[in-house]
Amino acid sequence: MDDLKTVVTLVSACLFLAAQCSGQCDDIDTQACSLMAAQNPNLCNDPNLSNTACPKYCNKCPLICYHCDTSVRNYTDCNTTRTCQIGEQCLLHQLVSSKDGHREYKMNCASLDVCDGKGIMQSERRSLKSRNLVTQCCSSDLCNYPTSVVTAGTPSPSSSATKAGTPLPSSSATKAGTPLPSSSATQATTSSFPHCNRDIEVLIEDSKDTSSSPYIIQYLKDLVSQIDIGLHHNQIGLALYEHDVEKQFDLDQHTDKVALLNAINRIDFQHTDNDIDKGDVIEFLQHQLRKGHHGDRSNYEDVVIIMADHFHHKRSTRYLLDQPAHHTVDLSSISKDVIVINVGANGAHSVLSSLASDASHVIDVPNYSTLTTTLPRVLSLLCV
């Protein structure tokens, strides 16, 4: 038994050193680490296992955080990253003007003392009478990206978010720096989200409305920033659909958060006619979500997120004609969690809604500017 443990430790050490030489720090198998921790609560106190087999699970890996030394009004202007020191967390400062409501952001690595409020700059202290300061820290890669809307003038206390991902504040800004139209979105009340790993296939209707793109991109970036991304964590594949389905990237094509966020920025929207065939969507999913193909992993459950636009559909027979019932059965056999987000449906019947796992997996929003309000619910459904 001792010899077997020695062999396991040596193999783990070799794999860990190989990962370190390639600039990576990750668990050999995160699910195995969770199982081992359940059997051995002192797993992370074991120097061999915590440093070799489960460094990320035991918080032995340095975090990668968004890093900007100067304040920016549009948080998407902060697009540089930094590898922190061991023990540091990702920090987000948000300053909200009580006078005109504008926001300023700083993102960087920070020690636990700074996260506890000991590092607030003197200039910020002097300005607190006219500006509200929100300081939040979190402990997963790139988690210091604003991901929920905070009402101006209502600061939240400084907090240290868990790895599961406490929602951080954000502004309504597009990638290009142009403020988005005002939204009725309110601050997400979910304090943490379930920590589970899935293969997530996202299908987005390529809306004819060109103004939808910035909202969709920001929504996807908010989603990604709330979950762990990696070969042993969550993977995301994405496709656009209108009169046919156009794959943007496979599940295993972007296996770290930085690469995935960059890929989201490069989504190739065409904004063509919205003439949807439910059968095409089902056929694509059946092709993509096959274990061992296109990055779909055999030991991870699949989740499907479908976003449908109801503003610009061609009311053609092709769209309205429901497909045979067996298509829905086939899709349910692929994934037990199929989430459909209807934009602008206003309660109207949706052919694509019938693909959802059940009524609780159908989410209606009035317009693209309110997409952010669905994020807590979508995240909670990922682990159903």
Per-chain topology:
Blueprint: H1 2-21, H2 30-39, H3 47-53, E1 64-66, E2 68-72, E3 81-83, E4 89-97, E5 103-110, H4 112-118, H5 122-126, E6 131-138, E7 148-149, E8 159-160, E9 169-170, E10 199-205, H6 212-225, E11 235-241, E12 245-249, H7 257-265, H8 278-288, E13 302-309, H9 317-320, H10 325-334, E14 337-343, E15 362-365, H11 375-381
Parallel strand pairs: 6-8, 7-9, 10-11, 10-13, 13-14, 14-15
Antiparallel strand pairs: 1-3, 2-5, 4-5, 4-6, 11-12
Helix pairs in contact: 1-3, 6-7, 8-10
Unreliable segments of 5+ consecutive residues:
4-22, 121-130, 148-192, 315-329
Mean pLDDT: 74
Helix vs. strand class: alpha/beta
The largest beta-sheet arranges its strands as: 12-11-10-13-14-15
CATH architecture of the largest domain: 3-Layer(aba) Sandwich
Structure commentary:
This protein has 384 residues and is α/β, with parallel strands linked by helices. It folds into three domains: 2-53, no CATH class; 64-170, CD59, CATH 2.10.60; 199-381, Rossmann fold. It contains eleven helices and 15 strands. It has helices at 2-21, 30-39, 47-53, 112-118, 122-126, 212-225, 257-265, 278-288, 317-320, 325-334, 375-381, and strands spanning 64-66, 68-72, 81-83, 89-97, 103-110, 131-138, 148-149, 159-160, 169-170, 199-205, 235-241, 245-249, 302-309, 337-343, 362-365. The chain has a six-stranded mixed beta sheet with strand order 12-11-10-13-14-15, covered by helices on one side. Strands 2-5-4-6-8 form a five-stranded mixed beta sheet. Helix 1 packs across helix 3, helix 6 packs antiparallel against helix 7 and helix 8 runs parallel beside helix 10. The longest helix is centred in the first third of the chain and has 20 residues, at 2-21. The chain starts with a helix and ends with a helix.
